[in-house]
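Weekly modeling sync, notes
Attendees: S.R. (lead), two postdocs, one rotation student

Agenda item 3: backlog of single-chain predictions. S.R. asked that every request posted to the team notebook include the full sequence so nobody has to chase files. The rotation student volunteered to paste the first one in as an example of the format we agreed on. Action items at the bottom.

Example entry:
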Amino acid sequence: MQKSVLILSAAAAIGLFFSGAIRAQSPTPAVPPSHVQLMLAASRINDPVDFCGEPVPLHDPEIKERFEKEIMLLLDKPAQVVLWLKRTGRYMPYIEKTLRQNRAPDDLKYSAVIESSLLPHIGSHAGAVGYWQFIRSTGVNYGLTIDGDFDDRRNLVDSTLAAIRYYKDLYAEFGSWTLAVAAYNMGEAGLRRRIEEQGVRDFYKLYLPLETQRHILKIAAVKLILEHPEKFGYNLNPEDYYAPIPTDVVHVSCPDETPIRLIAEAAGAYFKKIKDLNPHIRGNNMPQGTHSLRVPQGGADGFNARYARLLNQWRAEQQAAQPRNRLVYVVRSGDSLGRIANRFNVSVRDIARWNKLDHRRPIHPGQRLVIHQ
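Predicted structure, as returned to the notebook:
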């Protein structure tokens, strides 16, 4: 190896320097004093802290230490905090309005920051996805469509409404917003069992999974920083915040599976823009049916006429390109799409397209497949 790089934490570098271990070298610069002072200032919290109107008991030395830890860990990630602040300009107006309309505490909006960093595609090791990190089963229970065509966990409008309904149901059961958010994080059955085992209904006195113990304090720390960013050294100007993206909503009728690129062209946009504005769409095509989609502002003007023309043109091209010979093949034991494709000298993807199959899923004996030649 021609070159090696030794990476030391600031504290380790200072310790080695004074022990003489690296005196012959230039010492790694210490943490800037301003950063140290910021960390110290963060631990001097004199005002009461609450979440959804429920106090965080900072008079308890253990809770105070854990809360200070979360504050300082967040401040040690300035780029992440800056991005959170910037994204609040884009997403919080809608979230705040929806919470208000549904008579839910405003502080629940900070849960979304910790859950997803306000990113639609983020996922967890447990299979949670989207702005509010729903697992599949809970998302479906609360009315979200999660299938091969759509994943509404990535839809800010639908997932926010679902999250509020879930939080309110949890609050109705546990009688505390703090416990409701803890149940959202770890599962209501697990929280219910621990309350019964320990005979305690106070979140701060319950022994819970470490992730959940930290979760509430992380949210409270985020609330404190995002409500008073200037106190923690984040002095953003109004123009630094990301603005909400102006869009129109169009209602798209798809008589059959329809390429998204047609919708994009009809809206005067491009494929990626439609996917970015509608992160809940999966794949490259819209399924049969009528769908509401967001398009760039102005794209709704004349959309229907342009879409009808493009759709008719595309369907005519598809019809002209359709092979004349069509047969139905009954799948036999031992068959696979690959073997059938080789037998008829076609591609696996063509068979999947003709039969609206997911080419990654197995086929079964007795299944009837249309083959064009």
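Discussion: group reviewed the output briefly. The domain at 50-240 is CATH 1.10.530.10 (Lysozyme).
Action items: rotation student to repeat for the remaining queue; S.R. to check formatting next week.
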